[in-house]
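Structure catalogue
Derive tokens from sequence
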Amino acid sequence: FSEKGIVASLTIVNNELRYDFMIEPHAHFQCTRCGVLIDIPMKNDLFLVETIDKHRVEEIQLTFKGVCSSCLKK
């Protein structure tokens, strides 16, 4: 599915591979307590970068980590 562009594969922690059905550029939030991974829509030119200092960019992953709203209520 990832080769056909139906899902995106991403590595969040170490070798943990996850699949994401949201294939347009976005960030993620991962809760450090329960481990939930939440898609965060972002409109940012950073996701449009194709090169950095003459290096070709092939993948951009942006992950925020903290405590989710559900865990904060507990």
Remarks:
- Strands lie at 8-11, 17-20, 26-31, 37-41, 51-52, 55-56, 63-66.
- The mean pLDDT is 80.
- The chain has one helix and seven strands.
- The two ends are 37 Å apart (CA to CA).
